[in-house]
Design brief:
Blueprint (H helix, E strand, L loop, with lengths): L2 H49 L16
């Protein structure tokens, strides 16, 4: 294998490794956001139930329309 081809492949591996690390970071951030959103939904569901204003929707009713 030529030195140029080897260098190109090593650069590609390094780029892919950086990309995976960046994706992992974004996925962790999304997981954190999901946790905060679930906690907010639970809090709002509890407040609605305590106020007696309305019956909170079931989790199935909260799914986005694309499901």
């Amino acid at each position: 294998m030529s030195e140029t081809r080897l260098q190109h492949l090593e650069e590609r591996v390094a780029w892919l490794q950086r990309h995976v690390v960046e994706q992992d970071k974004v996925m962790m951030e999304l997981g954190d956001e999901l946790g905060r959103t679930k906690a907010l939904v639970a809090t709002l569901r509890t407040r609605l139930a305590e106020s007696g204003e309305a019956t909170p929707p079931s989790p199935a009713e909260e799914r986005p329309p694309h499901y």
